[in-house]
Amino acid sequence: MSIYLPIAEVSVNIYLLLGLGGIVGFLSGMFGVGGGFLMTPLLMMIGIPPAVAVATEANQIVASSVSGALAQYRRGNVDVKMGLILLAGGIVGSVIGVQIVKILREIGQVDLVIKLTYVTMLSIIGSMMFIESVNAIRKSRKAGKKAGPVRKPGSHNWVHGLPFRMRFPRSKLYISIIPPIGVGILVGLLAAIMGVGGGFIMVPAMIYLLRMPTGVVVGTSLFQIGFVTILTTILNAVQNQTVDVVLALILMSSAVIGAQLGARVGSRLPGEQLRVLLALMVLAMCVKLAWGLVATPEELFSFAGGGE
Amino acid sequence: MPHRKKRLVHEKGHIRKFMVVLDETPECETAVYFAAARARSTHSMLTMLYVIEPPGFTHWLAVEETAREEGERKAEALFRMYRQKLEKWGFGDLPREEVVRYGQRCEQIRELANEDPDISFLVLGAAVGGEGPGRLVTNLITKGTKDFPTPIVIVPGDMTFEEIDALA
């Protein structure tokens, strides 16, 4: 049974979409990851225009991050003040990102750029995850006890020398607001251009760069991602007309169910091995996308419909 | 049929244990004091548990490692603080043990109580002032006490030490 997606302007089998949403939801529930960087490339592969895939996926992330942020907020795991600073950066990044998409659309290069960013990003993330989890497996086989780098609680880095310092009581920090704003801008850009929440960059940045306590990092990043993806969705819908609500709804409905199941399965399985699988999947998608960019297409001419 | 592991506190070589769960809430202090006072008057042992909860939602193992290290440091600090408090309250010679677990708090509490047949009471402090008795009590009770291996003692968080001394 095919369904016509009004914004994407393609007809897709509805069961394929439901299946994709369910599988990605399942994986994100199982690994505890956002899923944006899995879903967007998959959507591109089944023929959804990249710009639409990105904007629609940002819309889908709104749902998961807002519900996650609320749960964390109730447990007191959100540093609202830090979240607002990150959000301020996120708004700037998101507005710039949507503008970039608009300009790229006008010169007709948006699909290529999105795919290139994805190939770059997926290859970096995939290989880092792969190396990290393989190392972890080897380590646990060898010694049974971890020997990772120990982060000293009071140690300072260059971040602590910057001006415009502000107190963040919840995170027990007194740091310059420049790095959090910078992190926020980067994540906002990613949301607008790639349709990902950006947790995979923001969480390590908050821990290792800003030195926030790990207990508030997840909640605070979800807080920021929730608002940034809302803004990105609205901006993309108004400026670029690339948010396909029908597609987003179909994906959301099956992703919710998948995520619940995935979370249940994930808590029972060994994390390291699963992460190797996830890393391999990410790398496989990266290769597929890259191949699509360099291989000679079967049809040399494509019809770039819609838009104007 | 609930299958509880048989408690062995009256067997030879075993000792009754009062378990408390450490955190940073004020009611935790009340619970520790009650458990210690009760343990002393019944010649029992005090078991202090700290559960390191993993962060949800992360892509990177390194983040989990860092969270775990942070949790271990926090556990160390809490144990040190309560060791000093017990000393100050005059429970310095009370037999006690310190346990650190990694996982969901309620699950780990239940698991430890299941594993150790000497644990005969779980002592919790109830929060006062806010809404409800605090996250720990709420979570443990609302998940149901079916199959829970021991009685659960809930100490009102606003009980003074004199009041506890008078009844423990």
Unreliable runs of chain B, pLDDT <50, ≥5 residues?
none
Radius of gyration of chain A using CA atoms only: 20 Å
- Across the major sheet of chain B, the strand order is 3-2-1-4-5
**Helix percentage of chain B:** 40-55%
Helix content of chain A: 55-70%
CATH class of chain B: Alpha Beta
Features:
heterodimer, A: 308 residues, mainly alpha, two-stranded antiparallel ribbon, B: 168 residues, alpha/beta, Rossmann fold, 5-stranded parallel sheet, 5 helices, 5 strands
Characterise the protein shown here.
The complex is a heterodimer of chains A (about 300) and B (about 170). By secondary structure, chain A is mainly α. Chain A has one domain. Chain A has ten helices and four strands. Chain A has helices at about 15-30, 35-45, 50-75, 80-105, 110-140, 180-195, 200-210, 215-240, 245-265, 270-295, and strands at about 1-5, 10-15, 165-170, 175. Chain A has a two-stranded antiparallel sheet with strand order 1-2. In chain A, strands 3-4 form a two-stranded antiparallel sheet. In chain A, a hairpin with a 4-residue loop joins strand 3 and strand 4. Chain B has one domain (about 15-165): HUPs (Rossmann fold, 3-Layer(aba) Sandwich). Chain B is of the alpha/beta class and about 170 residues long. The longest helix of chain B has 29 residues, at about 60-90. The interface of A and B includes residues 75, 153, 199 and 213 of A.
